[in-house]
Design goal:
Layout: E1 2-7, H1 15-29, E2 33-38, H2 64-74, E3 77-83, H3 91-99, H4 110-114, E4 118-125, H5 133-146, E5 150-158, H6 170-181
Parallel strand pairs: 1-2, 1-3, 3-4, 4-5
Helix pairs in contact: 1-6
The structure holds flavin mononucleotide (FMN).
């Protein structure tokens, strides 16, 4: 299987990235092909006002978002990694998710391409408490349901702030690796 991960942290090598790396290492051990995309490397722009019932919902810009979505539809498993920012996913990841709405919609529905694929989520957050993490996960769970994808699991690194903090949480890293292996 092909596993593609989208990292929504601007800090390469920091906690989200490290968590995603571990999932991908597990997936590699399980014999899958892996690919990692740092969303910060791409000039993603917000969804434009080019949609509506009169339009075919295909983005005329054909920019980098389409390229990234194409990589997603070619994969079997999608890993979404994000820092928790303001009780939510990062704006970077949200920009990408919003752009899914204009994927060749007049030609084919995204859900026809995504149905049956797996979604995995990795979150890094400074708060050591997990009391509001379901608030962050809920829209992603709904997105997976909407696209008829299978929720294959989540891994949360809480209590991490500076790059490298996650190394103090070996149990979370091992949970991430096991999740990758289980794909
Ligand atoms: C703009 C911003 C908002 C944040 N909001 C939260 C938050 O709501 N809850 C939390 O636990 N941590 C919050 N944090 C801390 C980050 O989640 C934490 O530093 C995490 O390690 C960032 O991921 P990274 O290491 O992959 O960059 C915030 C950090 C930033 C920069």
């Amino acid at each position: 299987m092909v596993v593609v991960a989208f990292v929504g942290s601007p800090r390469k090598g920091a906690n989200t990235d490290r968590l995603v790396e571990e999932i991908l290492a597990g997936a590699t051990e399980a014999g899958h092909q892996i690919e990692k995309v740092h969303l910060t490397d791409y000039a993603l722009t917000p969804i434009d006002a080019v949609y509506g019932s009169e339009m075919d919902w295909t983005d005329p810009r054909q920019d980098v978002a389409d390229e990234l979505i194409e990589r997603m539809v070619e994969a079997d498993v999608v890993v979404l990694g994000s820092p928790v920012y303001w009780f939510n996913v990062s704006g970077l990841l949200k920009l990408f998710i919003d752009r899914w709405s204009l994927y060749r919609r007049g030609v084919e529905r995204l859900m026809d391409r995504m149905a049956g694929k797996k979604m995995v989520v990795a979150l890094a957050m400074a708060d050591p408490h997990l009391d509001y993490v379901e608030v962050v996960l809920a829209p992603l769970r709904e997105a997976a349901k909407w696209l008829e994808m299978e929720w294959a699991g989540e891994v949360i690194a809480s209590g991490v702030s500076d790059p490298g903090d996650i190394e103090n949480h070996p149990q979370v890293l091992s949970e991430a690796r096991e999740l990758g292996k289980s794909l």
